[in-house]
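Q: What structure does this chain adopt?
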Amino acid sequence: MIYTTFGGPDCSWWMHRGHGRGRGPRGGRPWWAAVMNDPPPRAERGEIRYLVLEAIASQPRHGYEIIQHIEERTGGAYRPSPGVIYPTLQMLEELGHAHVIEQDGRKVYAITDAGKQELEAHRSAVDDFYGRFEDEPWEAYAEDVAELMRSVGRLVHAFRRGAARGGFRPETLRKIRKVLDDALEQIEDALNRPKR
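A:
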């Protein structure tokens, strides 16, 4: 019997669904790794202007330096493209929130007083965006996550075993649904609870 990287026979069903070890794009990784690895956060259309204003508030910068600043603040997780930054700079200039100055023989963008007011009015948007990148990645707790996913594997196995034995009667399913709904509510509450 084939086992996953973290489990035993309880989780073998996932192997046949292509979620565990074996050949393929995720071979050698536990099935749940792909579930955990969502794409990193990206700036929404309305957020990018405030990220740019924050970048030029500390010092005048040209487009590439703004890209570098945002990339560094996100630990390399997010790097806006020039196709996003330069139109945003043009828009900020038209709004009077930024202006072009010459520095060391090159043109850079500096924030205006109106731009500073706009940035302060939306400072929380900037803080919230960069705050998304401050938590440690789940890999830092891989062993704990694996233990949790082992329990998920047991749950799936219990369902399969119950179905094979004809245990899916309406009354039984209602009881199981109630247990799962209560558990999910507690899990969601724990995950959404602010960190101390």
